Amino acid sequence: MSSFDVIIIGSGPGGYVSAIRCAQLGFKTAIIEKYSTLGGTCLNVGCIPSKALLASSHYYSEIAHFADHGIEVSGEVKVNLEKMIARKQAVVDQTSGGVKFLMDKNKITVLEGLGSFVDSTHVAIAKADGTLETVEAKNIIIATGSKPSSLPFIKIDKERIITSTEALKLKEVPKHLVIIGGGVIGIELGQVYLRLGAQVSVVEFMDRIIPGMDASLSKELTKVLKKQGMKFYVSHKVKLVERKGDNVTVQAENAKGETITLECDYSLVSVGRRPFTDGLNADKAGVKISDHGQVEVNDHLQTNVPNIYAIGDVVRGAMLAHKAEEEGTMVAEIIAGQKPHIDYNLIPGVVYTWPEVAAVGQTEEQLKVSGVEFKSGSFPFKALGRARAGGDLDGFVKILADAKTDEVLGVHMIGARCADLIAEAVTAMEFKASAEDISRMSHAHPTFAEAIKEAALAATDNRALHV
Ligand SMILES: Cc1cc2nc3c(=O)[nH]c(=O)nc-3n(C[C@H](O)[C@H](O)[C@H](O)COP(=O)(O)OP(=O)(O)OC[C@H]3O[C@@H](n4cnc5c(N)ncnc54)[C@H](O)[C@@H]3O)c2cc1C
């Protein structure tokens, strides 16, 4: 029987990053993955393929603005969806191949098959050819991720009533796509198909889309997406999703009991994701699973069984690839006897629509609930030279700072390239910067990042320069 210092179950961004860090720290490491491709949800059916389709559809939608820039396109510009999806798959395959390369480079043993606990130090791997291999380890890290969840009355047939996984490989552009759930995944995929020519309607139970983010971001994103043609039915509870032939009927009810009926050819159910532990036999190792299906962990990502840890989507907290990666690194270092730390307040959240939406720290709503006195400074992108040069005028940066100490408590932004710009806010907050600190840093001109400096000036003493 093969024996390892650390075995990781699941090769998503949590699992594979953890494996690399374990190997760097000198541990004999193995990673178990039930699929033949490495990289988990993120690389195969999540972050990377969705960003590939967002990029392709963004290029297509930008053609509409070429004329403003003096670029004349003659002849018909058409979408070849099959080719677009094939390109996306090529990006996925190459990225997943990159993870395999990293496993080999770091001398990590890759074991393909479903991993199930035998006890707290042994894992059986059920292989595709029907054979079973049992391996042993001093430490085991559960990194089994998540799967799309649904509502009890919805039957996902993966053809017309679909999840994000199927939405990443449709064979045609829907005529009308009804998205159930206005969270990040639904909105991103909605914008892909909106750009490609679909009518897109979003039904959301809460009173706004991307409800976890600062309300000002929801408001601005809704405004921009409405301008692009997306329809929204917020504060509506979906009651029925029914397929008849190639058509799907979606019915939803508002607080007054009024019902709307939407007819479509595809309905994307994106109501969240559930932690995935099916087939893991966690009970055989004595590992506790919470009522929400999450593997229970302490602040050190340790389960109730001391040599078993868990990370990523399968444990509490934001279901984000970079959160899983941080936890993967942290757990490897804990096993090595180090004392790493994650500040969960500083894990940024991003929506990769265009304009992009990004945030870190506390929202206005959270600060109000916790009774913290704060001040706020905003700066609109349309006042930026760089935004005007490129024609990307939508959005703003908002900085929330402590009213007394001026420490930055939250940064919320929507606009061009915010997914990358948010890194400045994370860095500043990691070093406990004040709004004035940011406002006194030189920001290259003309850049989108100047909006951060200007918002910091606005928060410091209402002294933004360019409005
Ligand atoms: C459409 C979509 C877009 C997304 N976009 C983003 C984004 O832009 N940015 C971002 O941060 N996050 C994004 N996410 C979320 C991100 O994909 C997840 O947060 C991330 O993949 C979680 O990583 P993980 O390692 O915890 O688990 P996963 O990536 O889910 O990986 C778990 C792996 O474990 C394997 N596994 C499970 N059980 C077993 C078992 N018993 N034996 C062997 N193997 C097993 C699974 O097959 C899988 O490969 C997106 C998700 C979706 C669906």
List the keywords.
467 residues, alpha/beta, FAD/NAD(P)-binding domain, 3 domains, seven-stranded mixed beta sheet, 26% strand, globular, binds flavin-adenine dinucleotide
How would you portray this structure in words?
GO terms for molecular function: dihydrolipoyl dehydrogenase (NADH) activity; flavin adenine dinucleotide binding. The chain has 3 domains: 3-148 and 274-342, 3-Layer(bba) Sandwich (FAD/NAD(P)-binding domain), CATH 3.50.50.60; 161-271, FAD/NAD(P)-binding domain; 346-459, FAD/NAD-linked reductase, C-terminal dimerisation domain (Enolase-like, domain 1), CATH 3.30.390.30. The protein has 467 residues and is an alpha/beta fold. It has helices at residues 13-24, 40-45, 47-66, 81-105, 164-167, 184-195, 215-228, 282-285, 321-335, 364-370, 385-390, 418-430, 435-439, 450-461; strands spanning 3-9, 29-33, 109-112, 114-119, 122-126, 132-142, 146-148, 161-162, 176-180, 199-203, 231-233, 236-244, 247-254, 259-264, 266-269, 273-275, 308-310, 349-351, 356-361, 374-380, 396-402, 408-415. 33% of the residues lie in helices and 26% in strands. The longest helix is centred in the first third of the chain and has 25 residues, at 81-105. It starts with a strand and ends in a 6-residue tail after the last helix. It is built from 14 helices and 22 strands. The strands form 5 sheets. Strands 1, 2, 3, 4, 5, 6 and 17 form a 7-stranded mixed beta sheet that branches. Strands 8-15-9-10-11 form a 5-stranded parallel beta sheet. The chain has a 5-stranded antiparallel beta sheet with strand order 18-19-22-21-20, sandwiched between helices. The structure holds flavin-adenine dinucleotide. The site of flavin-adenine dinucleotide has 38 residues, from α1, β2, α2, α3 and β4. Flavin-adenine dinucleotide binds at residues 9-15, 32-35, 40-42, 45-47, 50, 114-115, 143-146, 164, 185, 276, 279-280, 312-314, 319-322, 324, 352.
